[in-house]
Amino acid sequence: MAKKEKESTVKSFVLRVDPEMMEAIEKWAADEFRSTNGQIQYILDQALRKAGRIKKDKNTLPDK
Questions:
Q1: What is residue 58's three-state secondary structure?
Q2: pTM of this structure
Q3: Which of 49, 59, 46, 55 minimizes the C-alpha distance to 9?
Q4: Alpha-carbon distance 28 to 15, whole Å?
Q5: What are the residue boundaries of the structural domains of the chain, listed by start?
Q6: Around 52, how many Cα atoms within 13 Å sit in the side-chain half-sphere?
Q7: pLDDT tens per residue, range 55-64
């Protein structure tokens, strides 16, 4: 089966998170109807924007 175009542009890696932090992320994700992975991407996106490391564009996650 061929990969979707978007999947080929996403980098995967292992992230170690302590259990308390992971539980908080999972609850936050559920509260906002996101997957845990989607919530982590959202958190990183917001932090990068706040730090001025990335600019807004239509291909990033929408603000809630």
A1: coil
A2: 0.72
A3: 59
A4: 18
A5: 20-52
A6: 0
A7: 877 565 555 5
Hey, what amino acid is at 16? R
Which of 11, 19, 21 is CA-nearest to residue 41? 11
The first and second tokens of residue 37, run together, are: 């992975």
Q: How far apart are the first and last CA of the chain?
A: 34
Residue for token digits 């603000």?
A: 63
CA 54/CA 11 separation, integer angstroms = 17
Q: Which two tokens stand for residue 1?
A: 């089966």
Quote the CA–CA distance of 2 and 25 in Å, as a whole number. Answer: 32
Structure tokens at 18: 């302590």
Judge whether 45 and 61 are in contact, CB under 8 Å. yes
